[in-house]
Amino acid sequence: MKMRKILIFAHSSGLGGAERSLLETIDLLKKEFIIYVIVPAKGKFYEKVLNAGIEDVFIVKSHFFYEKLGYSSLKKTIKQGVNFFSIMKSFYIAKRIGADVIYTNSIASWVGPIVSLMLKVPNIWHLRELSVGTSIGNPVFGRVLEKKILESAGFQYLVNSFYVQNWYSSRFGLVSTVAYQPVHIEVTKVGGVDFTKTKKISIFGRLQNQKRQHVVIDSLKFLPDTIVDKVEFHFYGAGSLAYFNFLKDRIDNRFLRNVFFHGHIDSIVDGFMDTNLVIAPSVGEAFGRVTVEAMIFGIPVIGASSGGTLELIGSKSERGSIFSEDNPMELSRKILDYIENTEKYDDKTKVAQNWLADNISKESYCQIFREKFL
Description:
Blueprint: E1 4-9, H1 17-29, E2 33-39, H2 44-50, E3 56-59, E4 66-67, H3 73-97, E5 101-104, H4 111-119, E6 123-127, E7 138-139, H5 143-150, E8 155-159, H6 162-172, E9 176-178, E10 199-204, H7 213-219, E11 231-236, H8 241-250, E12 259-261, H9 268-272, E13 275-280, H10 289-297, E14 301-304, H11 307-313, E15 321-323, H12 328-340, H13 342-359, H14 362-373
Parallel strand pairs: 1-2, 1-5, 2-3, 5-6, 6-8, 8-9, 10-11, 10-13, 11-12, 13-14, 14-15
Antiparallel strand pairs: 4-7
């Protein structure tokens, strides 16, 4: 039987969670398809794809179809002019290779879906984030066109959590399939807590308001003096300089020596080393890859009762601990509870790992993907 050809559109050439997930998806799809990939620029993802055993990779410059900040008419015109040429160039690539299926890795780019409409071939649209200003921004062409694009006939939708599924169903009436993305991480240490000396609490994510690192910073003022010498808070992730300075200015004076900002790291494993606890304070997290990675690594997680984080940990804190979003006082109580009841949290990491094996695995993802899309 002749293998079909699939053209994959990556919205970024970085190596964040969405791109790492796409690499894992490519590993699955290459058993079923001849794969071609379009990336917007060279970068770490592009380098990984070159060695992924696929047919070919094309660089076609494009921009997001969403903007968080205000933008001038000139900037908008230039960006979307680039996107127009990106659509046309991608259309001719897709037509030349004879693509049977389009796969779009994010709502951030409409190039793939528009090309699929032009070619009249199916488009699998992987909606990994919410289409709101606090997530990826607002559509530069407005909500009316966004709605028409999303509701186009012939599209199939894959989402990464029930939270995302419910959001798109209620807002756009979309019918989608939930498939928890399999997450692979090299485990070189099993989590375990011994608070006989200073221990490491880590927070991962781009420095921006939505990630709510300031909630962790604000929780410090509610912690007692008795633990000042017992804990360190390590923040991993680059981002807004203004937000970084905002965070530094809010640090409780007692903990000035206990808070560290490391910037971007290429491997999350480097951050996990010697980490005793991970805090996931972000609101509206579509999935929560860091939460899953910490669970795999055997590290307890305290997460905000929001989005995919709540779904992963469980509404009854079955697989970690939940605090009310944007509530630093409650978070401080959870940190203290963790220090005082480490055995309870160790037990939850085992529950989490068993749950992951049944729900977030390559086997379960492949089964759902094959049944619905292949």
